[in-house]
Amino acid sequence: MDEEHRGTWFGFGFCGFGQALGSGLGRQVHSPEPLRTPGGNLDVCRVSASWSYTAFVTRGGRAGPLPLLPCARAYVSPRPPFYRPLAPTLRARRLELGAEHALLLDAAGQVFSWGAGRHGQLGHGTLEAEPEPRLLEALQGLPMAEVAAGGWHSVCLSASGLDEDGSEVKRVSTGEDGAPAPFIAVQPFPALLDLSPGSEAVKVSCGSRHTAVLTRTGELYTWGWGK
C-alpha cells in the first residue's frame, strides 16, 4: 500500500479476497489503483495490509474496514458489506493485522487484540479466540508506542523503549545427540525481550514467524523462522 498525498492511497497485487479496497473479488491488480474507502472522502493516515485483508486508520482515530477474522463475530457480516467500523469510543493510533488476528494501539498507548488466539498471539493468557477488541490487561500502566502483528505472534514496543512480546516464542534446545533441536513454546502472556545492553528499540516489525527491531543508533536485530 502506498500514499501519494494526504488521504490518497493506492493498492496492487493479488486481490482474490478483495483486499485492495474497491478492486473487487478474484482479480489481480497489476498496477496501483486508488483505494475506495467505505463512506467516501475519509482522511486516511495509515493503511495496514495482511495477506487476505486490509484495514485503515483515519486522522481522527477511526479504524475500518475491520478484517474478516476467524471467530470475530463483531464487525463481520456474511453478506456485503463485509466490514463494519470499530466502536467510536476506540480512538486508534495504529492498527496492525496478523494472519488471523488484529492489534489496535489507542491514543493513550493501550493495546487491544482480537481474532484467533490458538498460538497465544493475543496475549490474554489463554489460547481462546476473542470476537471483539479486548484490552491487553497485562500491559495496563505501561503505555506502548508501537505494535506489530505476525502470523503467529505479536510484539509491542513501550514508550520507554522496552520490547514486550505477547506471542508464540521460538526457542532452541539441545537434543540427545547434542545437535540443536528447535521447538515451539506457547507464550500467551506478554514477556520481556532483552536486547544488547544500551540498545533502545524505536521500531518493530513482524513477518509470518520472524521479528525485526530497529534501535535508535541504527542497529537491526532479527530473529525467528529463517526458511
UniProtKB/TrEMBL annotation:
The record's listing under InterPro entries reads: RCC1/BLIP-II, RCC1_domain-containing, Reg_chr_condens
RCC repeat windows: 109-160
Sorted alphabetically, which PANTHER family does this protein's record hold? RCC1 DOMAIN-CONTAINING PROTEIN 1 (PTHR46849:SF1)
- For this entry, the protein name equals RCCD1
